[in-house]
Design goal:
By secondary structure, the protein is α+β, with helices and mostly antiparallel strands. It folds into two domains: 5-13 and 94-156, Alpha-Beta Plaits (2-Layer Sandwich), CATH 3.30.70; 17-92, Alpha-Beta Plaits, CATH 3.30.70. 32% of the residues lie in helices and 37% in strands. Strands 3-4-2-5-7-6 form a six-stranded antiparallel sheet. A two-stranded parallel ribbon has the order 1-8. A hairpin with a 5-residue loop joins strand 3 (48-52) and strand 4.
Length: 158
């Protein structure tokens, strides 16, 4: 027995841009407005996280393909008055890494193990998103190989 946690696999997607809309006053519909507008223009959002901060302002972060950046910024600019964001920023050169397994929701410590491993490897995490079966994060493309290598040390990957 290796002591490793068995998982279904690890995936990596490069060529992403992290987009952050922070401090928006659009009410509770910021995610719906932004994601619908992007989707209707054929822009695929790879991962997304959203929250309302302590001041009641909306914040959303999502990843898109590098080739969709100019169109995304144009769409968000056209929504500027409606969403009243404090800032819209982006960061190029990102990779999404996901680790998945069918029973993650029944097993504690998966996310903790993922982020302890990446921290020990010095991998910078820009965004985290999870589901019942997946833990995903965005990091710099130049750290993606290191992140995947480190995760393979702690998880039993088929």
């Amino acid at each position: 027995m290796t002591g490793k946690i068995a998982v279904g696999g690890i995936t990596r997607k490069d060529g992403l841009v992290l987009v952050r809309i922070l401090g928006a006053r659009a009410g509770r519909s910021l995610a719906g407005q932004a994601l619908s507008s992007l989707g209707l223009q054929g822009i695929n959002v790879t991962c997304v996280t959203s929250f309302i901060d302590g001041e009641g302002l909306n914040n959303i972060c999502f990843a898109i393909g590098e080739n969709d950046l100019d169109q995304t910024l144009g769409i968000l600019k056209s929504m500027e008055e409606e969403i009243q964001a404090g800032s819209i920023a982006y960061q190029r050169g990102c990779s999404a890494i996901s680790i998945y397994g069918p029973h993650f929701s029944e097993r504690p410590a998966i996310a903790g193990t993922v982020f302890e491993a990446t921290a020990e490897a010095g991998v910078e995490i820009h965004m985290i998103t999870t589901s019942f079966s997946t833990v995903s994060f965005l990091t710099n493309e130049d750290q993606a190989v290191l992140a995947v290598h480190r995760l393979n040390q702690d998880f039993l990957v088929p």
